[in-house]
Amino acid sequence: MIRQNSYTIDRNLLDYKLILGPEFIEFLTSLGLEHHWIDSGAGRARAMIDYVQDDFFSPQARVTALDSNTPEPHYLAELEKKFSSPGFRYLSGQRIENRHLDEVGCADLITDVYGPLQYSSTMDQVLERYATLLKPEGEIWTVQPVITFIYDRQNKEIRFQDWLKYVQGLTVHSVLSPHSGARELVLLRNEESIVIPKLALQSIYSGSPPLRKFTLLDS
After folding, report:
1. 6 located within any domain
2. Given a cut of 70, is residue 63 above it in pLDDT?
3. For residue 38, what pLDDT is reported?
4. For the chain, what is the domain count?
5. Residue 124 above 90 pLDDT?
6. Is residue 46 part of a domain?
7. Residue 129 confidence (pLDDT)
8. Between 20 and 30 A from 53 (CA), which of 10, 86, 180, 194?
9. 47 phi and psi, to 5 degrees?
């Protein structure tokens, strides 16, 4: 399903496997009752619904689906009826940059599958909020933005992965998914303090995902 502004809102767990690779499913199986998975830009939360309904993943982590848009009231009512357990939450109507730790909770796993890191005009703030939510040794699974450009003050282009190298406190692992062609990125928190290099938006043009240009303010 495609929302009116042209982004997919119903990717399921198989889609996540194809995009992030089979290693992602292996990581999911390592999670248990004491863990917490946050899916940012979750759309209709199909991937998490598949996860909690599949006995293959047992025991299961607590899950929280986040999306800036609010689904239809009847769909929310359906989710509440199916998943009344505190182990499943759906928080909508607010951008991830504006959500607080005490509202969402700390996470062992954060996924962003063509979510805010691909669409937000404040990409650095998105990553900063993920870092705030991430537990020590926690991981962020995402994909490299495909039409996002970052330039330094001399107008020299910096690849997204090179920008991530400026980040203090996160180790980046990159793998090319054989099924989707997307470049899977796994960010591991390995320090207590995380510093995200600031970006200033130069321009953004609508698309799926949008074409964005940023300037690196510090390093």
Report:
1. no
2. yes
3. 97
4. 1
5. yes
6. yes
7. 93
8. 180
9. -60, -40
SS (H, E, C) 85-105: CCCEEEEECCCHHHCCHHHHC
> In this structure, what token pair is assigned to residue 52?
């909690």
**What residues make up the domain containing 181?**
13-146+168-196
CATH number at residue 17: 3.40.50.150
Query: Which pair of tokens denotes residue 60?
Result: 């299961």
- Say which residues have a Cβ less than 8 Å from residue 172's Cβ, sequence separation at least 6: 161, 164, 165, 185, 186, 187, 188
User: With helix as H, strand as E and coil as C, how does 15-35 read?
Assistant: HHHHHHCHHHHHHHHCCCCCC
| Contact call for residues 216 and 151 (beta carbons, < 8 A) | yes
Mean pLDDT value across residues 152-159 = 88
**How is residue 168 annotated by DSSP?**
B
Q: Whole-model pTM?
A: 0.89
- Identify which has the larger pLDDT, 38 or 174: 38
Would you say residue 162 lies in a domain?
no
**Region label for 105, one of left (φ > 0), alpha (ψ between -120 and 50) or beta (otherwise):** left
